[in-house]
Every structure is written in C-alpha cells, then in structure tokens.
Amino acid sequence: MSRFHVNGSGCTSPERRCGFDLVAAAGSVTSRNTKAATVAGMSDMRDLSARLERVEAELALHRLAYRYCVAADHRDLDLWRAVWTPDAVWDTGGLDHEHSGIDAICAAVQRQWQAFPVMQHGTVNHVVDLGTAPEGITSEGTATGRSDVIVHVRTGDGWITGGGTYLDRYRRHDGEWRISRRTVTRPFDLGPLPGLPQPAG
Question: What contacts 130, CB < 8 A, 6 or more positions away?
Fold first, then answer.
C-alpha cells in the first residue's frame, strides 16, 4: 500500500505528514512573532525608562534652583552647602567675584547676609539641557541650565532691586543633582526707590 495519499486540499504527502508540517510552520511563525514582539517591547521599555529619567532629572534640577533661593533668603547654611558640589565655583560677576570650593562659597554668602538684613530671590525662566544622547542623560550625570533672577535686598537706605541671568553647570554628587558652577551674567541694579515706606525694624 502506498504511504502517500491526496489530502483534502489536493496536496500529495506522506500520511499525516502534511498536517505535521503545517503545525510546525505555524509554530515557527508564532515563535518569530513572539521574539519580535519581545524585542520591540524591550526597546519600548528602554525608551520609556530614558524618558522618565529625563523628566525626573528636570524636576530635580528645578527643585535645586528653588533650594538655592530658599537657602540664601532664609540663611540656611546647611541647605546652602547641600546645593553645591564640594568643588563648585560661584562667579558673582563683581569684585572678588569668583569663589572656588564649598567653604569659600559659604563664606561669601555669609558676607552677603551681614551686608543685607533681608534678601528675596525669585528665579524664573529656568531651562535645563540634559544633552541629546539617545540613551538619555550622560553617564557622568551632568547637565547645563540658565535662569533669570530678580533680587530684592534691604539696606540701611531702603530697598534695592536687582537681577541678572544665571548660567549653570550641574553634576550628580552622592546621588543628588547639585550646582557645580554658577555664573551671574547681565547683572543690573535699580537702586533705592525713594518715597516708599520702609519696614520697621
């Protein structure tokens, strides 16, 4: 007896062989599709993870800008120290303008506190750049940014309003974003405003 027969679709094959081949072929296609879907899923997850990392970094850097202002205005030396990397540079753009290292930066802000009984910083237009590498944030954990600032300070003669632009470099230190360099550019002062009532005390 012949080992071949004509199946219902008209193909001639060993008995039951055609059915087995179809099942095997279907399994192979399914396996390839599963692998492709797995690879695509992994790519999507990596992309999502990189995007989330960038969002979290931007939020952390915005908080860092606020913490700088809070530390300066509320005379919180511990918070002020935590804003900077240990080797940071603060370039205030004036005489004796460049302060290198966290101890020098802390000494500089304490001199400002002695000169001005009250300070109030407002930082706006904060834009950060985390780089354009496809894998997301650089492996070194660095970024740059810029923001505009308005500062109100009280002196013995009244209030002075000034401001400028901060050009920043940021770096991760001990797992947190910190300022590694801040340069003050485009500074301006409006001077004491005459005719305004001065606060008591």
Answer: 54, 57, 58, 136, 137, 138, 143
